[in-house]
Each structure stands twice: as C-alpha cells, then as structure tokens.
Amino acid sequence: MPRRMWAVWLLFFFQYAAIGVYFTFLNVYFRTAGMSGTQIGLINMCASLVSVISASGWGYLSDRSGQPHRLIALGATGALLAAQFIPYVHGFWEFLLVGCLGSLMSSAPMTLTDSTTLTLLGNRREEYGRFRLGGSIGYILTALTSGFILQKTGLRVMFPAYGVIMFCFALTALQLPPVTLQRVERGSKALKQMIRQPAWLVFITCMFLCWIASNASISFLNVALSAMGASQSLIGIAATVPAVVELPFMFFSGAFLRRFGTSRLMIVAMAMMVVRYFLLGWMPVPEWAVAINVINGPAFVFFWNSAITYANQMAPPGMAGTAQGMLASTVSLAAVASALLSGWLLDSLGPNGIFMVMAFLVLAALALFSTGNYWLRRR
Predict the structure, then answer these.
(1) Fold category of 6-177+188-378 in CATH
(2) Can you tell me the mean pLDDT for 305-316?
(3) In 84, 94, 124, 260, which residue has its Cα 20 to 30 A from 298's Cα atom?
(4) How far apart are CA 19 and CA 15, in angstroms?
(5) Which pTM does this prediction carry?
(6) Contact 299/213 with Cβ under 8 angstroms?
(7) Domain ranges of the chain
(8) pLDDT grade, residue 186 (50/70/90)?
(9) How far apart are CA 283 and CA 266, in angstroms?
(10) HEC assignment per residue over the chain
C-alpha cells in the first residue's frame, strides 16, 4: 500500500464535513429564499444533469492523465468559489445558473475521490471503508453542530464555512500519493463489452432506481421535516444520527464484504432502505425521523461500499476512474429524475407522500436485483 494514505482519510473527512455543513441545508436555504418545491426540484434536476455529463468526463481525464489529485483540487476550488455567489443572487434563474456551475466542478471530487482510493488500495479494496470512515466522522461533526449554529446565526453562514472546508480539502488532495498510469490498448472496446453484460445492466438499473429514492431523501427530507415544523437543530440531529450509527459498520465493512460478498450486502441494504422509506412516509411527527434514520447507518454503508466495489471489479484494467465516472453519472441521472418527481410529490402529496412512493421504487429495485442475480447464477 502506498505511503501518505493518511491523506486519503483526511480527504474523506473534509469532503463529508463540507456536505454536512452545506448540502444538508442548501435546499432549506432555497425554500427560505422563496423557492417552491417544484422550483427546488428543477434546480436540483438541472444541476444533476450537468453532473451526468461531467462525472464521466472527469473520470476519463483522470484515467488518461494519471493526475487525479490535481483534478480533485481543481474541482473543489471551483465548487467553493461557485458557492460563495449564492447569497448574493436572487430568483430562480440565478440560483439555477450558480447551482449548475457548482455541480460541474463538484462532480470532480465526488467521482475521483472514490476511484482514486480504490486504485491506491490495489488488492486491498475491501479496506475502503476504513478510509471512508474519515468522511463519516467529518459529516457527524459538521451536520450536528451546524444545525445549532445556523439556527442562531442564520443560513447564510454556511457558505463561507463550506468555502473554508473545501479549501482544506483541495490542499489535502494535492498530498495524495501518486497513481500509476496504466495504458491499456483497446480500452474503450473493453468498456463497451462491460456495459453490455447482463450483470452490469441489472446493477446499473438498480442503482438508478435506488438513487432516485436516495436523492429524494437527501434533497427533501430536511425540507419535509421543516414543513412539518422541525427546528434547524432537530434537522441537524436527524441528519447526524445515521452517520453516527454507520461508524462501526464502516470500520468493519471490509469484513462484511469478504464474508457475504457485494451482491448479498446490496440485497440486505435495499431491504433496509424499503423499511426506512415506509416508516418515513408513515411518521406522524418530525421527531420520529431521528429514530427512523438509524436504519440508514448500516443501509448506506452496505449499499454504497458494495456498489463502488462492484463497479471497480467489473472495470477493465486501467479504466477504474471511467467506470466510477459511469456509476457517478448514473447517480446523477437518477437525481435528475428524482428532483422533478420529488418536488412535484412534495407540492401535491405533502412530506409523507414522497417517501411512500420511494419505498415502492426501492422495492422494485430489490426484486430486480434479487431475481437478476439468481438468473445469472443459474446461467
């Protein structure tokens, strides 16, 4: 394993610390700025559409240049600069423009941090969770504390806070160990063969369905809780609880992957997601979200760690970044569909209606993945 792997742990720490202080409350800020649920959905949809294209582009540049650390730093710098304009713009179209610019740049660290970590780990990819643990700790610290701070200072403080954290993230990215550039002939042909495999098609379809639901939770759970009368501090606590619960699961995720394999863990994760969304759709008061979100701790660890490991295993030699970019693009494409659907559901069915619909989407993904894997094993 290369030296300076401490930088990987610290990179995840700053990345998810930034998410905790910024993306946890960004849609709440849009709501307080006068945007409707449908308008927030449109902003998220267009930003995700930009990320669909840019994520694959960043992954391709990384594989071809062998300089993922510089691309990560570049994207982080652009993202933090874009965020600083949000408090000074007004209206739907201005929010939309700045949101798309931020998405273009932030898709670089979102895509390349995972793929670079897996490349550096080499044959020890199962240890990914121990480095990703830094992200869980960073998220807990900021999501928990920022809710109380923002309740007293106002939401505008989150923009400079995000800028400082992302600046530290960019500096840390430049400390990453070098990545060996692999030149593989006919790599694009091998990639085309990979995406035509039934296993990949089943996997990517299930990822799409599950991330429609996951993005709805990420984007609109806090908005839904706010609409139900939750305070900013309660929103922060509800967002922090699953990150706290996931800590032991993240630390031992390598053991879980070795013991059960990626496919079984994904099935377990999807089953837990179905239960969580049904409970969120049923909860009568916002305080219930704190207990319900406990389920998201192990569910997220099992689902995401299995997904990136699965994609990395199927990637042709030297094209791990491109494969992770395709996975990130699928997540972003799901966010496009989710943004409009969730915004419309919020306006038409209310906070609880969103999650009932999402529960059935994940249930469909669970059925597809289970039957698909059974059929592939029989073949």
Answers:
(1) Growth Hormone; Chain: A; (1.20.1250)
(2) 81
(3) 124
(4) 7
(5) 0.72
(6) no
(7) 6-177+188-378
(8) very low
(9) 26
(10) CCCCCHHHHHHHHHHHHHHHHCHHHHHHHHHHCCCCHHHHHHHHHHHHHHHHHHHHHHHHHHHHHCCHHHHHHHHHHHHHHHHCCHHHCCCHHHHHHHHHHHHHHHHHHHHHHHHHHHHHHHHHHHHHHHHHHHHHHHHHHHHHHHHHHHHHHCHHHHHHHHHHHHHHHHHHHCCCCCCCCCCCCCHHHHHHHHHCCHHHHHHHHHHHHHHHHHHHHHHHHHHHHHHCCCCHHHHHHHHHHHHHHHHHHHHCHHHHHHHHHHHHHHHHHHHHHHHHHHHHHHCCCCCHHHHHHHHHHHHHHHHHHHHHHHHHHHCCCCCHHHHHHHHHHHHHHHHHHHHHHHHHHHHHHHHHHHHHHHHHHHHHHHHHHHHHHHHHHHC
For residues 62 and 64, give the distance between their C-alpha atoms in angstroms, rounded to a whole number: 5
Q: Which residue has the tokens 């930003």?
A: 47
What six digits make up the tokens of 248? Answer: 């032991």
Q: Which amino acid does the sequence have at 172?
A: T
Here the tokens at position 103 are 């998405």
For 52-90, the pLDDT digits (tens) are 788 778 877 887 777 888 999 999 999 999 999 999 988
Residue 179, C-beta contacts closer than 8 angstroms, at least 6 positions apart: 66, 67, 68, 69, 116, 119, 120
Amino acid at 350: G
Distance CA 301, CA 322 (A): 22
Structure tokens at 42: 């449109």
Q: In whole angstroms, what is the distance from residue 307 CA to residue 156 CA?
A: 35
* Distance in angstroms (rounded) separating the CA atoms of residues 180 and 153: 46
